[in-house]
Specification:
Layout (H helix, E strand, L loop, with lengths): L7 H30 L9 H6 L3 H9 L6 H12 L8 E5 L5 H7 L5 E6 L2 H11 L5 E3 L12 E7 L8 H11 E12 L7 E6 L2 E8 L4 E6 L3 H4 L2 H6 E9 L6 E8 L1
Parallel strand pairs: 1-2, 1-4, 2-3, 4-5
Antiparallel strand pairs: 5-10, 6-7, 7-8, 9-10
Amino acid sequence: MVECDPEWPRAVSIQLALIIGIVALIPVGFLVRKRFRDAPHPFPVDIAGQYDLNEVGRRYLAFRAEHKGREDGRSSSRFILSHLSAGADRALVDVGCGGGDELVAYRELGFATAQGVECSEVMAAAARQRLGDASAIHAGSWSSIPFADDSQDYLVGRASLHYEEDLDQAYREAARVLKPGGMLIVVVGHPDNTANRGTVSRGGRRYVQLKLFQDRVPVTYPLHTVDDYLSPTFAEHFELVERQDIGQTKPNKLAIAARTR
């Protein structure tokens, strides 16, 4: 007769308990990852909140370099640069300057001053580090541009104006800051581009929700139409110089250049 080790049942029980515990954690881990992946996009109580919460700003900066070479990015930059004429007496402000990549390029053109406005602390810190000039980056947004009346020759913005709840307020503010004959140059997500984006309704208004950079950077912004961008308030303050629909097969960017009246 074979004798059993009296500790054997206890050892087996412990091993089984460990296995069951590990197996039980697998669906929990899956659910946690799924919940993180499918978490609601940050809602735009304010623009800065999207970039400073949930590491949206950090993710944006981490993946921005990966997409610098895209055709729509080059086309957006070409549009803006085609309307700039630098000079020792001319001043430019990049509103919603993000991490400062475009601002670096603008400063190399030879403007008397080329400064940035950014409402996200994460993005502003990155821009200050990128430029090596903390004094060139100011807290603000399109609806509150921290510069004096008639002080700037150019206000530019790539992928920033569409975050504004009130475009007309942004236009009034831009007209205030620009000198007579000054230029407003912006590139935004095209309102007619519905690819890879959803919409939600909050407080009687529709908002766009999408994820950028391989679906890893969630952003939310008000749903504007082309007519919103070319509103009566826009026409009151600006003369349209050029409108361009940017995209290889269908428009995914709307570019506008306008001069103050």
